[in-house]
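Tokens for chain A. Residues wanted.
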């Protein structure tokens, strides 16, 4: 569907008295309501202490993320909790961000990712094989925990050069999970001053201390001898600084944490949302199974299978349309400008959300319907570049997007080539929000071996 530019106009205002109750009951649904009422117009939301703009129109997204990316910076109240946690890492802004990105980018080039896919396939097949036992006994598995296990085993082996031992991982992963959950309080209520204690603040500090113990130990162990792999660890330990001195332990720790956060949580959650969608759309699952049976059969998945699995690719693309797990990334204006004719002043916050744009009826036909055929090569050409942006855009566009696409397709294929998963019950389609999109309730599924019990 083509998207017409919106003529200059005033922002649509949503005063607090109209929205407060909805925000308390269900913030994501309330944002979705506001966004669809605004229908692509710039929206001003009253959050009491602050009035951020909600930007949903693809032209405006392009302006903020790409054309005026220098003006709209990753700064302001929304980024503060992350900045405190991850310092001058690739998730920061300005010269510090640029330096980290220069160091890490070589790990994520198409050439390097292609080199890593064989290793990745091996790690995925091994991790998925551990589902044999629950499939044999009929014991239900926790979907989030199992997707997390498969993703973590893969990412640690492939992207972190197998330098995080199982023992380190057993301490790091639950602590990191706790941090991701606890930081959500601050992320959702960014305007509460630091001086005011909030639930979870103490637990948060304790979790950060445990995580730092593990990360700094790892840095000490490997910094002078990281090996010659093309992984994140090696790239960080061998990074030159501007003045030719070796990188500090703190800088390596900040980037290790940023990369661990971005590479595990997002992929795990995206793959978790896959199963409720397939549960509700058995026709899509049947098509996937037919394609996988024909191309992969009972073999372990290999990189050369992927180009012959176009429907798997479409399903993954459509999954991220409905559940773009990096659902909100704010920016702060540093210079005066205007969006859609509405004046924007320095210091104004602008909220960008692929979750909301992907669900606008003026951007996507039948936006709430799961339909992987939107992503056939012919249909993709019809979309505005910023009608679909699960990985953001412009200079901060996700550097892990190729890794994700390869990893997610292989995990989906490996699971469906061996098993027929069945969810224990239907799942509410609306996620719970924090820094990412999580299911509201724990999700369980039982697995049967492919070819049996169908
Ligand atoms: C479902 C999977 C993923 C989604 C939805 C996702 C989404 C995003 C989004 C929206 C951004 C832009 C943030 C902004 O503009 O402020 C981003 C940035 C980033 N992502 Fe991802 N991501 C995913 C997977 C990954 C993976 C697997 C990795 C690493 C292996 C990764 C590493 C990064 C990094 C380092 C950045 C910051 C880039 C920069 O600022 O230069 N992401 N991601």
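Reply:
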């Amino acid at each position: 569907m083509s998207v017409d530019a919106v003529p200059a106009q005033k922002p649509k205002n949503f005063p607090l008295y109209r929205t407060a109750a909805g925000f308390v009951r269900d913030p994501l649904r309330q944002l979705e309501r506001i966004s669809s009422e605004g229908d692509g117009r710039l929206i001003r939301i009253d959050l009491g202490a602050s009035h951020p703009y909600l930007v949903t129109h693809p032209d405006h997204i392009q302006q903020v993320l790409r054309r005026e990316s220098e003006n709209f910076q990753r700064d302001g109240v929304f980024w503060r909790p992350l900045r405190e946690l991850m310092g001058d890492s690739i998730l920061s802004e300005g010269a510090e961000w640029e330096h980290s990105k220069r160091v890490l980018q070589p790990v994520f080039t198409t050439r390097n990712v292609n080199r890593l896919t064989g290793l990745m396939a091996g790690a995925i097949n091994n991790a998925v094989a551990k589902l044999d036992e629950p499939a044999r006994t009929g014991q239900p598995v926790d979907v989030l925990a199992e997707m997390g296990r498969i993703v973590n085993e893969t990412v640690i082996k492939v992207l972190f050069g197998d330098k995080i031992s199982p023992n380190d991982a057993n301490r790091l992963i639950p602590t990191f999970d706790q941090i991701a959950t606890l930081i959500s309080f601050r992320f959702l209520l960014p305007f509460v001053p630091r001086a005011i204690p909030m639930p979870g603040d103490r637990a948060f500090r304790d979790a950060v201390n445990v995580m730092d113990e593990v990360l700094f130990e790892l840095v000490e162990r490997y910094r002078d001898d990281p090996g010659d792999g093309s992984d994140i660890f090696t790239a960080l330990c061998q990074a030159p600084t501007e003045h030719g001195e070796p990188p500090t332990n703190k800088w390596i720790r900040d980037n290790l944490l940023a990369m661990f956060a971005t590479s595990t949580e997002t992929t795990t959650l995206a793959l978790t949302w896959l199963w409720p969608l397939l549960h509700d759309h058995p026709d899509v699952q049947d098509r996937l199974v037919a394609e996988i049976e024909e191309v992969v059969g009972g073999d372990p998945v290999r990189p050369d299978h992927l180009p012959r699995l176009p429907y798997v690719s479409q399903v993954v693309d459509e999954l991220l349309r409905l559940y773009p797990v990096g659902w909100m990334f704010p920016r702060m204006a540093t210079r005066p400008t205007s969006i859609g004719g509405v004046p924007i002043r320095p210091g104004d916050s602008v909220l960008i959300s692929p979750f909301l744009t992907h669900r606008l009826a003026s951007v996507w036909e039948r936006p709430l319907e799961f339909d992987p055929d939107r992503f056939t090569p012919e249909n993709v050409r019809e979309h505005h570049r910023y009608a679909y942006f699960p990985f953001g855009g412009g200079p901060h566009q996700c550097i892990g997007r190729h890794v994700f696409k390869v990893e997610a397709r292989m995990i989906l294929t490996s699971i469906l080539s061996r098993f027929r998963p069945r969810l224990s019950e239907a799942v509410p389609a609306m996620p719970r929000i924090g820094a990412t999109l999580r299911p509201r309730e724990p999700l369980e599924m039982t697995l049967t071996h492919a070819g049996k019990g169908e």
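The radius of gyration is 22 Å. DSSP finds 17 helices and 13 strands in the chain.
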